[in-house]
Amino acid sequence: MGQVPHGFTRTTGAVLRAIRHSQESLRALARHHGVNPQTIAKWRREAMSPIGAPGRPSRVTTLSAEKEAVVVAFRRHTLLPLDDCL
């Protein structure tokens, strides 16, 4: 079974490897793959794994049930979005 990319991704691991090892110019590769030349330069520069970097934080913070209840009550009282509460 092949690799299934995320809906917004433009590349797969095979494409990233091909870009990294290609002798074509940044502009030619950017035209071919439909991305900015700076993006091609970044992909060449970074030592990415074949499946790319994870799309989640490396450390996840969890709240206790009591703290979560406080946050929910605060948001319901103030009607603020979560980002504004931070």
Shape verdict: elongated
Structural class: mainly alpha
Q: List SSEs in N-to-C order.
A: HHHHH
Low-pLDDT sequence parts: none
Terminal residue distance: 42 Å
Rounded to an integer, what's the Rg over CA atoms? 20 Å
What is the percentage of strand-forming residues?
Answer: under 5%
Strands, count:
0
Helix content: 40-55%
The count of helical stretches stands at: 5
Largest sheet: none
**Overall residue-averaged pLDDT value:** 78
Describe this entry's structure for a reader.
Helix content is 51%, strand content 0%. The longest helix is centred in the last third of the chain and has 14 residues, at 65-78. Helix 1 packs across helix 3 and helix 2 (26-33) packs across helix 3 (37-45). The chain is built from 5 helices and no strands. It has helices at 13-21, 26-33, 37-45, 65-78, 82-85. The radius of gyration is 20 Å and the shape is elongated. By secondary structure, the chain is mainly α. It has a domain at 9-52. The model has no long low-confidence stretch (mean pLDDT 78).
Describe what is shown at a glance.
The protein is mainly alpha-helical and 86 residues long. It has a domain at 9-52. It has helices spanning 13-21, 26-33, 37-45, 65-78, 82-85.
Which descriptors would you attach to this protein?
86 residues; mainly alpha; 5 helices; elongated; 51% helix
Strand and helix layout:
Layout: H1 13-21, H2 26-33, H3 37-45, H4 65-78, H5 82-85
Helix pairs in contact: 1-3, 2-3
